[in-house]
Design a protein that fits this description.
Helix content: 40-55%
Shape: elongated
Number of strands: 4
Oligomer: single chain
Strand content: under 5%
Length: 337
Amino acid sequence: LDFFSNHFSVTANGRLMAGLAATIEREAIAPHMFDNFESLLIAVEQHPAMLIYLNNEKSFGPNSRIAKKRKLGLNENLAREILELHNLGVNNGYDQNDVIELAKGLTGWSVQKNNKKGKAGFNFRANGHEPGKRYLLGKTYTQEGIKQGEQMLKDLAMHPTTAKFVCYKLAHHFVSNNPSPKLINKMVSQWLQTRGNIKKVMESLFDSEEAWQVQSNKLRTPREFIIATHRALDVVQINEKFLYSSLRNLGQQPFNSGSPAGYSDDYQDWLGGSALMARLDWSTKVAQFKKNVNVEQIIQSTFGEAISRNTYEMVTRAESRQQALTLLLMNPEFQWK
């Protein structure tokens, strides 16, 4: 989900985008999480949040009727991000001409404001679409109107380089910072066999031996750490203000990554001294709120028999329940997933 939704950072219109970012998760990403990648890709690129953030609602074909009448031009932002971040990867098999051709194929993809005549959302403005054939990655596209851009996205979704790029990101997020070529090849093969069916690709990942190694290879990001803590403590009622301030204080404020690539999930980026101190302060504060918890029950429900003897004894022999919970939350077995 972060692959697309983290695209929104604070810019000149940052407040607007932070508000819209939640809608792209709910309306475009979540409904297509287990579909083929092409369905997810098209839904995301046609969502008003993506179109506005990357200025595609202001992109018109140089030879379109709108451009000639209003002297408006082409904007390459959306096309470049589609190639760089959503499909092939940076400088991975395409050139500037491909960016321009994709941008032309997406001209006319705009936004409809809420009014009496229609519902707010995606709107294709045929008068703004660049007429003629398009050429992308060696293929020719003769479709007219909205179908041209959609077909270009469908072909990008099934490109072998896209399969490798996205599968690597999935394995990197769920399994290891350095997933093996064997695992990536297995996922790519499933991708190409199922036309990028995300559910099948994820099943191939979770069926792999690498996904079930005893040794933890991924440090929990602040978001994952907070979610894991709430689950371990069986928190039913969520304090939204506390949750938001926690994410901000731990360095992962929602939709504020500052980069279209989103927040990092490399463990090195979350292991700094100040970051660990922030986690310790947060764990101590949580332990103060949960003074009467039974830490041994939490250990059993969270770890079962997987917890080490050293960690078990260190936690259960703490001087107080508050200290025991703090130690449990800060031990490596809880910090790593």
